[in-house]
């Protein structure tokens, strides 16, 4: 902030002396001119009086200028003082706000550690309100929610005779509420109308490594980096229509179906060592780098019309059920790594190729109906893409 230097006393004395000198010099000059001028004696006294009046006016005017300067300094000092007080008040208000946020955050965190499910639910919703009102804290609060979901969960069949299982059922409801909060605030548009979601928190990162997620739903969301390493998905895992900047599913276990239909994986989708025990679909999905090394597909796997833009690797991947990759496309480029399962191949898409692409599969696989390239909206003359087919 600007500061005004204190005007020393000697400066004021110097200016006053200067004003007197200017007035005296002005009078002296006029009187000297009169001595040199030829004037009647009767008019000389009047002219001398006027000269003295002029000199004094000049002196007073000079003093007025200095007084105006002092008034300007006083006004500037007042303005700076007001600005300083306003800044101090803003700083005080900001400190008070941060203290209030810290208090609310601490209280909500304590509630999340409560013994009763209703207390933990109250903590979740307090965190949600806090993040909605304070955008700069949203990533931190999402990390807290993810941390809660990473806590161990005992999964077993419910029994009315076992009180602990009843507690687990209540805990499951709390976890479902946490998952719902994440979905509600990571979805950029709402409903069929696709209106902007006023509660969208932005492309935040998720860290759910090792979490046990029940009926997990992340469909139509937009996320930055999503880390699910070693997570276990119980029930149907829904990611359809999601936009993931980069996703790590290494070592995940999907106990139920996994839906990745129309999911967009930006930089990479890493499913190394993942186990899909139920049906899985990547239909219309878009991959940057797709890594499925040592992944195991226990039931039907669908890659129809999927796009693999960069590297694609299925090294030592195992398919125990039927597979379909009708209309799937791979970018043809020698600079990109491509490791396909035995019997799979890439056929170039070029002008004059058949307008129906058959998926070739071993006898134990169930072939799906052929799909017209034109129906899929593909260009028959696109040279940089190839069809991925199983054989």
Which helices and strands occur, and which strands form pairs?
Blueprint: H1 9-36, H2 41-112, H3 117-133, H4 138-149, H5 163-185, E1 189-190, E2 195-196, E3 206-207, E4 212-214, E5 222-227, E6 232-234, E7 237-238, E8 243-248, E9 253-254, E10 258-259, E11 264-265, E12 268-270, E13 275-276, E14 280-281, E15 286-287, E16 289-291, E17 296-297, E18 301-302, E19 307-308, E20 312-313, E21 318-319, E22 323-324, E23 329-331, E24 338-339, E25 345-348, E26 356-357, E27 371-372, E28 385-389
Helix pairs in contact: 1-2, 2-3, 3-4, 3-5, 4-5
Structural commentary:
With 391 residues, the protein is an alpha/beta fold. It folds into 3 domains: 9-100; 113-193; 205-391, no CATH class. It has 5 helices and 28 strands. Strands 3, 5, 8, 11, 12, 16, 20 and 24 form an 8-stranded parallel sheet that branches. Helix 1 packs antiparallel against helix 2 (41-112), helix 2 (41-112) runs antiparallel to helix 3 (117-133) and helix 3 (117-133) runs parallel beside helix 5. The longest helix is centred in the first third of the chain and has 72 residues, at 41-112. The model is unreliable at 157-166 and 351-383 (pLDDT under 50).
């Amino acid at each position: 902030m600007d500061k005004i230097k204190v005007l020393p006393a000697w400066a004021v004395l110097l200016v006053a002396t200067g004003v007197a000198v200017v007035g005296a010099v002005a009078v002296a000059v006029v009187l000297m001119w009169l001595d040199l001028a030829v004037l009647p004696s009767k008019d000389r006294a009047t002219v001398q009086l006027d000269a003295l009046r002029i000199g004094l006016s000049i002196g007073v005017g000079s003093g007025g200028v200095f007084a105006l300067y002092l008034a300007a300094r006083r006004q500037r000092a007042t303005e700076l003082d007001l600005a300083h007080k306003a800044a101090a008040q803003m700083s005080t208000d900001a400190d008070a706000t941060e203290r209030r946020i810290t208090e609310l955050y601490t209280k909500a965190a304590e509630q999340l550690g409560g013994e009763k499910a209703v207390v933990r639910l109250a903590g979740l919703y307090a965190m949600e309100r806090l993040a909605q009102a304070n955008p700069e804290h949203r990533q931190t609060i999402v990390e807290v929610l993810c941390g809660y979901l990473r806590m161990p969960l005992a999964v077993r069949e419910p029994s009315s005779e076992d009180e602990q299982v009843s507690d687990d059922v209540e805990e499951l409801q709390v976890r479902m509420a946490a998952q719902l909060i994440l979905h509600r605030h990571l979805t950029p548009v709402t409903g069929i109308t696709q209106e902007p979601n006023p509660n969208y928190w932005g492309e935040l990162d998720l860290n759910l490594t090792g979490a046990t997620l029940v009926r997990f739903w992340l469909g139509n969301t937009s996320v930055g980096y999503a880390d699910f390493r070693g997570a276990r998905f119980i029930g149907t895992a829904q990611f359809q229509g999601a936009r993931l900047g980069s996703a790590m599913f290494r070592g995940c276990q999907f106990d139920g179906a996994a839906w990745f239909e129309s999911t967009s994986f930006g930089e990479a989708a890493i499913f190394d060592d993942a186990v899909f025990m139920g049906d899985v679909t990547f239909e219309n999905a878009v991959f940057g780098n797709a890594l499925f090394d040592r992944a195991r597909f226990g039931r039907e796997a669908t890659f129809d019309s999927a796009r693999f833009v960069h590297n694609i690797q299925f090294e030592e991947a195992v398919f125990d059920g039927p597979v379909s990759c009708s209309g799937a496309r791979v970018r043809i480029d020698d600079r990109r790594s491509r490791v396909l399962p035995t019997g799979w191949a890439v056929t170039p898409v070029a002008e004059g190729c058949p307008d129906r692409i058959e998926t070739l599969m071993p006898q134990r696989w169930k072939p799906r109906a052929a799909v017209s390239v034109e129906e899929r909206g593909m260009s028959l003359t696109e040279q940089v893409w190839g069809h991925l087919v199983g054989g």
